[in-house]
From TrEMBL:
Pfam families noted in UniProt: DUF8098
Region of interest called Disordered, as start-end residue ranges on this chain: 79-135, 331-362
Biased composition (Acidic residues): 124-135
Taxonomic lineage of the native organism: Archaea, Methanobacteriati, Methanobacteriota, Stenosarchaea group, Halobacteria
Amino acid composition bias (Polar residues), ranges on this chain: 79-93
Name of the molecule in the record: DUF8098 domain-containing protein
Species annotation: Haloplanus ruber
Amino acid sequence: MSDDTQMVEITDTESDLVTQLLAGIDEAITSVAEIDPTYANKTKVQKLLYLAIDEFDIPITYSWYLAGAVVPDRSISPSSLDVYTDQPTSPSEPSIAGSADESVGEESSETSPIEPIMFRDETNESDPDPPADDLESYVSKGELVAFYRDVLPEVWHQETMRFLQNFYQEEAPEEYRLLYIESTHLRTHLAELIDTVEIYLDDGDPTREIDSLRESIELSISDLHHYIRADDQLRETFEVVVLGTDLIEDTLLKLERLQPDDFTDEHLSLLRDLQDFFYYYVWKHPCLRISYQTATGPQADELRTERLAEFESFKERVIERRDELRAELASAGLRPAPGDYASPEDQELTETLRDLSSQYLE
């Protein structure tokens, strides 16, 4: 599926500043002996850019979106670094299974979560004091490289989901901090579920059973619901989020009732589709609103306009994809029958426990 949303435009000045920041990352990487450039990934490159933008007040547009703070330029990736392009074959990314840094993130998708960028030559004529395109107007080269030398070891050596959790804890806007952290928990549990089914298909012995993973996923979903409902701006996305997470919970209910010998490659493929559905549709819905609220920098108004336009029509896209995936799951035997659901008494107990959990979190 192609993404037909309007493309954000950033100025040549911003592009020049990004290029100079990437050069600073390059120099820092080559000067820190324990840093292996082949372990670069898109998430970490984007977050390194943000850390400098925030630290030195550099006028580059960004917002908080699917994986947190991000400059809306899909071309930014490890291949943007000279030290990376000089490398031969890159080893496996030290990330959660199935994520490939942002396979449930920013790197690839039917609907790419970071829209492509179009550069324009003109500056903002309405700005009497446009930003300088020389990075040294904001930070010296030596100071920038020293900054990156300091933060690189901690960023580089963390598994991506662990890195994101720590990054959100330290950097996320307070009103969204717990929501972003919980999103990583849910993504991690969904990846573990896929791992478990894949191990069963290979006649292996997984470290966690389906029932344990189902419990963790349902608790994460409950917490995610709580944080969305607690925010005045995000509350309007709650209905759509529930439509999506209900599909995940229904699938888990049926999956738990199957014997491992009944698992198929089709089941595994559909679980990966479900993982992508959560990230690119369910989670994206509130993230469009978050991006609108947090857009910062020279092109913030343009970014907010785009996010709002996509948000206003995105509910229908979520429902359409939900319906398609639900039909595929039913065809593969992963939709529960009426008798598979808990009794009213059990459902009432579950809701009580969720309410108590929400009260505790408050």
